[in-house]
Amino acid sequence: MGNKIMSQMNLPSLGIAVRTLFTGYLLVMAVGFNEKLKALIIAIPFAFLIIDIPSWWIKSIFPGIA
Known about the structure:
Layout lengths: L1 H28 L5 H27 L5
Helix pairs in contact: 1-2
């Protein structure tokens, strides 16, 4: 069961991570924003990414949740 989950989640999680990193990079290079606001805006997608990936595992273990 674990191998099936890993094969299904590698590509989407990589795509999400790359988009998040690219968006964060663009924001870091932006001028005219408060540094604390930049840090908050960059941290939010990573926090949701950390929450999203374990939710795929929980859904596969407990299919009634989905």
